[in-house]
């Protein structure tokens, strides 16, 4: 699978490719930016939306959240995102297979080895 990692924003605006995710389902991978293309940062988180809310599910990771439902949040300037669009019924299985392949450090529930 070929992944294209891109910034979420273009200047101060949400990138057009992110806006195109409205009403879609799929899986997203968040990785740390690197100035060295050969040594691109590790994938730190993999998420999915199987409810046609890929746009809002992805963007919540760039907001400040607190409380019991708080999830991983990232500085938009320090990460890049790749998206694999798929039918809603395949999103969870695809997410699990990508987590297994990349072993992101913030997906501790699906990645028991990350807690060791």
Structure, described:
β1 and β2 form a beta hairpin. This protein is of the alpha+beta class and 116 residues long. The protein starts with 8 loop residues before the first strand and ends in a 14-residue tail after the last helix. A three-stranded antiparallel β-sheet has the order 4-3-5. The protein has helices at residues 16-19, 54-59, 88-102; strands at residues 9-10, 13-14, 26-32, 43-49, 79-85. The chain has one domain: GIY-YIG endonuclease (3-Layer(aba) Sandwich). It is globular, with a radius of gyration of 14 Å. The model is unreliable at 110-116 (pLDDT under 50).
List strands and helices in order, with pairings.
Elements: E1 9-10, E2 13-14, H1 16-19, E3 26-32, E4 43-49, H2 54-59, E5 79-85, H3 88-102
Antiparallel strand pairs: 1-2, 3-4, 3-5
């Amino acid at each position: 699978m070929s992944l294209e990692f891109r910034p979420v924003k273009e200047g101060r605006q949400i990138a057009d490719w992110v806006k195109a995710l409205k009403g879609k389902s799929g899986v997203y991978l968040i990785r740390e930016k690197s100035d060295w293309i050969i040594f691109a940062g590790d994938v730190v988180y993999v998420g999915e939306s199987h409810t046609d809310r890929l746009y809002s599910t992805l963007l919540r990771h760039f907001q400040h959240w607190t409380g019991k439902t708080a999830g991983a949040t990232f500085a938009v300037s320090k990460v890049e995102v790749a998206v694999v669009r798929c039918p809603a019924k395949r999103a969870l299985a695809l997410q699990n297979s990508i987590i297994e392949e990349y072993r992101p450090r913030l997906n501790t529930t699906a990645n028991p080895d990350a807690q060791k």
